[in-house]
Specification:
Layout: E1 2-3, H1 15-27, H2 38-58, E2 66-69, H3 72-83, E3 89-93, H4 98-109, E4 114-118, H5 125-135, E5 140-146, H6 158-167, E6 171-175, H7 187-190, E7 194-198, E8 210-214, H8 252-268, H9 270-288, E9 294-296, E10 310-314, H10 319-328, E11 331-332, E12 334-336, H11 341-347, E13 354-357, H12 365-381
Parallel strand pairs: 1-11, 3-4, 3-5, 5-6, 6-7
Antiparallel strand pairs: 2-8, 7-8, 9-10, 10-13, 12-13
This protein binds pyridoxal-5'-phosphate (PLP).
Length: about 375
């Protein structure tokens, strides 16, 4: 199978990730920080190593600022429900994933908060920034913004949006689902208050693991409460990180696999990885122009304006039909709304959805050529 759904989760996983998950299951099936025995200490050491790798990758201030979660959705929920108080207002972009929209909508439904959506104007960062500025009001407590659209690959001017938030004394939360491991994210330099990441996409870890990086000195309210192995006599959750936000037994195989994923991209080189994926996406983009009745919703891929995600449709054909055809040809792509309806509303693709292609470090030219041949055949006969 040619797998081109890497914006959902990367596949295959690097061999060292598979080995490390296996190794963790064999060697670290003990509860870190809960016992003085050797297996517990070894498990704690393995967790610490991944925490340090994540700290360094994102330039976090300290390893305590790295929180392990089950994925980007949990990281975002932890920030949203941990920061917001009744009466607060939030600004989000029109490209946000349901992992942002749904928790906010739920809080709004309960009458607790309100939120506004700033339209992203593709190709005009000044206009996008202006839309954010206009959406801010006296009650705005936080801006949440995706680094890049998971549907169209469009990069948002998040450094400028973060600076805008801070100039109003507003917190900034970055959804790095489509950028972590691919674009440079420097928390120290950019001052993002919160960065939410999946561990299983561009960081090449297994599914079921994610990260929340905290830069703000804000003490988040807890999403879940439980045992931490620290301050156990106290019925209240610890007021220090990471313990405050990591109750229950940690996902050790996931954490170890994530550590191996970070080591993998470090060794491969993020710059080299970027060049590889952009080259393939440019090749695909240029090839797609010659497909009959193609409707491309992504501009030509380039580092300043996009991540390697391309969305398109063929004529009036439903995106699911194209994906099903490709699946029969042994090519896995994603169709539909990609959990980001407002991005489609903006683009006029809410009814049809789009076909989405996203490569990984393991995608090669031949994969793209085979995809192109299949698409040309499909468009010819449709
Ligand atoms: N945010 C964006 C932009 C995404 O693309 C995704 C997943 O596709 C998520 C959040 C949710 O990530 P996870 O599946 O790790 O919870």
């Amino acid at each position: 199978m040619i797998y081109l759904d890497n914006a959902a989760t990367t596949s295959p996983k690097p061999e060292i990730v598979i080995k490390e998950v296996n190794n963790a299951l064999r060697k670290y099936s003990a509860n870190p920080g809960r016992g003085g025995h050797t297996p517990s200490i070894q498990a704690a050491r393995a967790v610490y190593q991944t925490r340090m790798l994540a700290k360094e990758l994102f330039h976090a201030a300290a390893q305590e600022n790295v929180i392990f979660t089950s994925g980007c959705t949990q990281s975002l929920n932890t920030v949203i429900k941990g920061v917001l108080k009744p009466g607060d207002h939030v600004v989000i972009s029109s490209m946000e994933h349901n992992a942002v929209v749904r928790p906010l909508y739920r809080l709004k439904q309960k009458g607790l908060i309100d939120y506004s959506t700033a339209d992203v104007i593709i190709g005009d960062d000044d206009a996008t920034l202006n839309a954010f500025r206009k959406a801010i009001n006296a009650k705005t407590r936080m801006i949440i913004c995706t680094h890049a659209s998971n549907v169209f690959g469009t990069r948002l001017p998040v450094e400028r949006i973060c600076a805008l938030a801070h100039s109003y004394g507003i917190l900034f939360c970055l959804d790095a689902a489509q950028s972590a491991g691919f674009l440079d994210i420097d928390i120290a330099e950019n001052g993002y208050d919160f960065v939410c990441c999946p561990g299983h996409k561009g960081l090449y870890g297994p599914t079921g693991i994610g990260l929340l990086l905290i830069h703000s000195n804000q003490l988040l309210d807890t999403l879940t409460e439980g045992g931490t192995g620290s301050d156990s006599v106290n019925p209240v959750m610890p007021d220090y990180y990471p313990d405050r936000l990591e109750s229950g037994t940690l996902n050790i195989p996931g954490i170890c696999g994530l550590g191996a994923g970070i080591r993998f991209i470090d060794r491969y080189g993020i710059e080299k990885l970027r060049r590889h994926e952009y080259r393939l996406m440019k090749m695909l983009y240029q090839g797609l122009q010659s497909v009959k009745n193609i409707r491309l919703y992504t501009d030509e891929p380039d580092i300043l304006h996009s991540v390697p995600v391309i969305s398109f449709n063929i004529d009036e054909v439903e995106s699911e039909k194209v994906a099903a055809y490709l699946n029969n040809k042994g090519i896995a792509v994603r169709a539909g709304l990609h959990c980001a309806p407002s991005a489609h509303r903006m683009m006029g693709t809410l009814d049809s959805g789009t076909v989405r292609i996203a490569p990984s470090v393991f995608t090669n030219e031949k994969d793209i050529q085979i995809l192109m041949i299949a698409l040309k055949k499909f468009s010819y006969f449709s």
